[in-house]
# Entry
Amino acid sequence: MGFFLETLFGGLMVGMLYSLIALGFVLIYKASGVFNFAQGAMVLFAAMAMARFYEWIPKWFGFDNKILANVLAFAAAVLVMIAVAWVIERLVLRHLVNQEHITLLMATLGITYFLEGFGQTLFGSGIYKIDVGMPKDPVLVLESLLQGGVLINKEDLYAAVIAAVLVALLALFFQKTATGRALRAVADDHQAAQSIGIPLGRIWIIVWSVAGVVALVAGVIWGSKLGVQFSLSLVALKALPVVILGGLTSVPGAIIGGLIIGVGEKLSEIYIGPKLGGGIEIWFAYVLALLFLLVRPQGLFGEKIIDRV
Amino acid sequence: MLYRENGQFKSSYRSDQQIFPILQDRIAMVALLVLAFLIVPLIASPYLLTAIFIPFLILALAALGLNILVGYCGQISLGTGAFMAVGAYAAYNVQTRIDGMPLIASLLFGGLASTVLGVLFGVPSLRIKGLYLAVATLAAQFFVDWACLRLGWVTNGSSSGSVSVAGLNVLGLPIESPVQKYLFALIFLAVFALLAKNLVRGAIGREWMAIRDMDVAAAVIGIRPVYAKLTAFAVSSFIVGVAGGLWGFIHLGSWEPAAFNIDRSFQLLFMVIIGGLGSIMGSFFGAAFIVVLPIILDGLPYWFGIPIDTATASHLTFMIFGALIVFFLIVEPHGIARLWSTAKEKLRLWPFPH
# Structure
């Protein structure tokens, strides 16, 4: 029982991290109808910027304070991501208005290649580490209830809390601010939004910037877990089933989808994996998402797809 | 002046419905075939053949298969690499396990195995549409990647999934030298291109296109979506499977699952989109573009004598490749095939503008 709970908690926390990446996909899809394959590359790019600025900034200004360096590096990385968003809107999205979904998808794949190459040219292609002072030691909980207790990784716990806070902030931003309202209007209907005077270009920059910041947070958390290296861009592939499971247009869907995939992945790896030869994590998530889609083709919380002839 | 249909009267349905209704097109086609079958093998160096022509032919075949699914039937697939892998590994299995199995038969068997998987993963397309389907097809990709690495019987017990074939021959003729390999791949490509062209011109092709343009309307006028979508998946994955077999047997000789990973799927999708969706010709253009571009990009620093270390060069190649893709999509979202047909249209009227 204790072992089962441990796996369950582990899955929930990994799921929360998947949700963070999935959130970036959902934000951009909602606002601009672009399925942004470059999200993984953005996570990598942001994490690299953060890691390198953390090394560079103390050198440039000649101080030695970890917290200050972290804060400044984070701020610099945010600026970088906003610049990336601006460039993408200016050079790519603006010219591809009203194109087919698949053309836009391919364009983001082009952006992926570009960002991966650009990031490594700019920041170097080594393995860097991000240290924002998250505790690494595991803790035992529920010792009174179960024999042996349940071992939980503190780092995962912090990460899950950060993810939850970020989601709450985003929800507030979307529901309560004027910009958030404009974003939702654009998501509902581009033309109607434009006709009442919402500037589409600016909205897209904002949304891609927000997605960039979400990517940065995801990059910092994943980066401090795994180290900042090229393979970081592959975690986006694990977030894809989360997005379609939860529904491409739903923020809560990204969270719940993440939790389902996280738990499903860990439990299957432990309980089904050995029978099939192990390593089934990577496709199990996709097959799980596929099965869910067979029941609900628009994902759990996605908008119902209505065919009009 | 030269490219014109004036004076070419059609007096029978047969002549009206031929693949190339304009005489000049027929002449150009014959010239192209002569060039491909006779002149290229005679003058191209072995390096050119192995580095450019053979990969181009095989990937063009795979792109052709994918174009049937994506371009003609409108079902986006990100799992093409998986179907190539199935074709390659199935062909390998028959080839090694059955003594004296003819090469062509095992390649076709690879195609059949791929068809079965294609239909299986095509079933969800009846319910799932658009981008959801695209992501769902990744399930095929990752499942096959995993199966090739972990399931012993797929790779005949080799530990890392790497296998190799040797001593290929067709009816006693060896397929060893670059020229022989080139001709072998070329024959496959020519036959399948003709088959595909005729399929998309016929009733079934029209059904695919109707489904692509609007599936509800197609169903209303009496096209069975189940039949149309599944045949598209079947035909497409058959061709892709055969291309996978060729890629493994003819181009690589020995390969491991990574040869057919998700990057391969993206690469093929790039070919189809840059070449032109819904165009047989486009598959060839796209394949040529994507095969030749990285080679040129890699060669550029050397040709201009710019000293640059390999790591930076490969990052720059990535950047330029990505930027060019985006640039191309912006300039001509309908692909090179559209440029081609615009050029032909202009040529018909030339030198008068209207």
